DNA sequence: CATGAATGAGGTTTCATTCAT
DNA sequence: AATGAATGAAACCTCATTCAT
């Protein structure tokens, strides 16, 4: 067997990922306000000073977490089908994710707030969000062309509405399902 | 005589309010992550150890800020008129406030996140939000009765949609105006 | 009796001075290499974090020590008499100080080296040394005018020789007495 | 064949020397206060943990640097000629070295201070200095016998004066030239 | 009420060193 | 020999809090 020896944590680049995920969990639990290098280290079972071997500074770790978290969110496999179906599917996926993984969205909201005072994070997050935005616009434009959009809805503004509602709904995940369903209903013609 | 002493900053309950407002400003600028008793004290020009005469502990100050901030938000003079007009007016007021005072809403989002780990805050905030919620329901029910609500919209769910959208829109105040206008348009029949 | 209560360290500006002197002692014992805020604090019997109440940063403390140490050195009451007597007296005083308080000069050498990488210290030290230098020049010029200087000695260069020899001699205080005596003998005509 | 392996940095004893010289450069730049194994390793392009294959501990490296540095200084080829010429030549050489290589002397002063708290270094340095001292005494005794020494100068004390002045002068290399020239002039009869 | 001094827990980071590979 | 990962002690600094004045 070529398995790694037991009793030793498997080092290598996996350790880096493990740290990022541990930091993500800390963030989900206590927000930036309570993000401590010690706790992150404890999360993977190493000494807190060892983190600096992988991430020279706390900010470096934070950046990695932002990258990880945003990637986590915007990695949806786009389905086939017409624009209306794809839009519906997208909204359904969002709804499902908020219900299934509420922490992910909580962390994303935490990032939104942090980015206001951290240009480095802002750049990453804004970049990722821009991808989402343009994707939404494309879907809405397609739906509009198919005559399936509620009348008088500008696709660009519609995209903003979706983004805003999803973000706001994620702050109260228990009601998020109904909210997004209603948004779907109002936005797309039956 | 109950006159304030001459030559001294007017202490008393005004000092308490000043501290709360200073804390609010700190919160708007740096979030809970960077809320420091020292900075709050500096904001009103007193020594940081003096805060404890007004608020025994930091948490006490935070509670007071939550009270102040939520009061700030839900202090809208309800207009006269029919339910539809009142609903429209309410949405317009929300839109205006987000655009005019974006920090207020940022602080409210900060509170939303903090409340997840702070039952004391949760109670206050949830209480205030419940007021907003029931008020929205009343308006929407009235609008529905007047036949002015989009068909198939449950007033309770509609209230949640408004809350979610307003919260999410406040995270990007520059686009909030259009988003809430579109929400109005989709929700209320012309 | 208006004496300060026993059992409590007498606070006030004395504490600041006590810290500077404690830092001076640490410096004398271990040099900058081993200068620790903890040890300085222990030297006056307070918690190490309390130092920051008096000196926001370590560098601030270091600057204060430099000020204290250099002041310590260049505070010689100039005697009356002719230039030759004053010069002789000055050299005798230097000799005495090196023998009596070797640590003072060790610390001064430590400062000389540190100042090479610390512009803030350099400014202070260079300023003080310039005072010494010009004072030496004056004395040597006076001695030259009185025909008491060794022939062919430029007062300015003579001042540098005194400075260099004193500094070097302080590195081996046990031999410093004889060295400075010899310097006196070579520099000043009997 | 004892040839070095191709394509690899020539390891072996050369690596050891390279490390010592890198450490010397670090010392010249930042003193003991800022001497870091990491920086030394970076100076020769290897990982910092690899140093320990050549020097088990930092102190071992320091000892090697002391040996290297002191050897650097006292490796003067003694010239032929009479004692007076040899003395003059020696002083001229010292002057030249301070002017040409000021860092060498700065490092030596750094060592003088460190040796006060490090018996191991003290032994090495004192041993080397003793060689210099006795050599100076011999030269001065010779000069005295030739009637070329300033009257009333004890060779032993004269040697101390030279040592002290050279050390002190090295702390301000820009003025060292004139100072040592004046010392020569005062000590040796024209 | 306000302050200055002090505290102590805890934060991030640094660094020499060790060890398996 | 060299490396990457980990360690643990220790460094400077921050901050809410307490207390005597």
From TrEMBL, chains A, B, C, D:
Swiss-Prot/TrEMBL keywords: DNA-binding, Repressor, Transcription, Transcription regulation
DNA-binding region: 36-55
Gene Ontology MF: a single term: DNA-binding transcription factor activity
Domain HTH tetR-type residues, every copy: 13-73
Highest taxon above the source species: Bacteria
Record-given protein name: TetR/AcrR family transcriptional repressor of nem operon
Organism: Nonomuraea endophytica
